[in-house]
């Protein structure tokens, strides 16, 4: 069998090894566990109500508060399980389509191979003409090359779904880590998947004259109004338009989440046409370490202009580094799970007080609004970015984490008065701080 046909069969075999039944079972298992979690929540609530009638004083109230926290945790776990079930179903449906397409392509390839074998077999028995056989050989192999390209597209499309949904599964905080739908990719593999999708995105734009003109003008609002384009950009690059606030944000599974953060990234601002204020000043950053675990944390803020002056906005990013990590010096991973923070960011005019927009974490998966990165950018070239201020509230998992962030922000503000950063504690239940940044 020639190389072309072998490659088609190899790719088809790769797709057909997957089990839609197994994925369906996992989705059902998630929902079964979800029901058990909700039953446990109901039991906890009934116990809490009974105990609340007799427990008084500080110790009793503390115990009741703990039961309330347990109940809340069951809600979050049930939500994780439901979202995970949906991810398994998305993967299942994508696999079913890929397998159907693979079977069709394999059948077409086998038919072409049989025809090719027949042509050369006939020639070997004195039938036909060499020139005609040679021409037919080229035509059939040309069709096989097209089939191979189609087969590669089938695999790439499924692999992209697996990457996106698998990432969502791996970052859940409930008991579902081991059910992740795909192996962890390294940055090179992620980049390869995205690069393979760019031609498809370009094709969508090329088919629509309105989109072509908008792209040439840099009119991203019009480009993103096309649902097919918007879906691809969100799936592979993470950006999503929020019409209620007229700004763009990012999903938790965005490509940026795979690359974490390093100071070097700030030096790349000119490449993307950004001119930003940021809290990475002369090597001094807002960083702290959890004394119990040795885990390191980093908070960074940005605000200013993007897209070579065509847009403005701000960002709040939270990153982590495990104790004893072998990652390069200065590199932090995007915060995941319980380390994620709930941020409400507001971009306003320092001179007039006008609030341009607020982002309460629209890009976060699920309904908890927790994310590693609150980004909000509006396309408008007429806003004086030098007058931008940023306010935000940050909610974290516990008071100890809130106090560490507060202490580090206060230290940084005192060390860099030119940043005009003020920070205060807001509440312990939930643990929240707020800041106003007027550099």
Can you give a write-up of this model?
The protein is of the alpha+beta class and 439 residues long. The chain has eleven helices and 15 strands. The strands form three sheets. Strands 3, 4, 5, 6, 7, 8 and 12 form a seven-stranded antiparallel beta sheet that branches. Strands 9, 10, 11, 13, 14 and 15 form a six-stranded antiparallel beta sheet that branches. Strands 1-2 form a two-stranded antiparallel ribbon. Strand 1 and strand 2 form a beta hairpin. Helix 2 packs antiparallel against helix 3 and helix 4 (130-170) packs across helix 5. Residues 174-185 have low confidence and may be disordered.
Notable characteristics:
439 residues, alpha+beta, 7-stranded antiparallel beta sheet, 6-stranded antiparallel beta sheet, 11 helices, 51% helix, 21% strand
Topology:
Layout: H1 3-16, H2 20-52, H3 57-124, H4 130-170, H5 187-206, H6 209-217, H7 220-224, H8 227-237, E1 239-242, E2 247-250, H9 256-259, H10 263-266, E3 275-278, E4 280-281, E5 284-289, E6 296-306, E7 311-321, E8 333-334, E9 341-349, E10 355-359, E11 370-371, E12 373-379, E13 388-395, H11 399-415, E14 421-428, E15 431-437
Antiparallel strand pairs: 1-2, 3-6, 4-5, 5-6, 6-7, 7-8, 7-12, 9-10, 9-11, 9-13, 13-15, 14-15
Helix pairs in contact: 1-3, 1-4, 2-3, 3-4, 4-5, 5-8
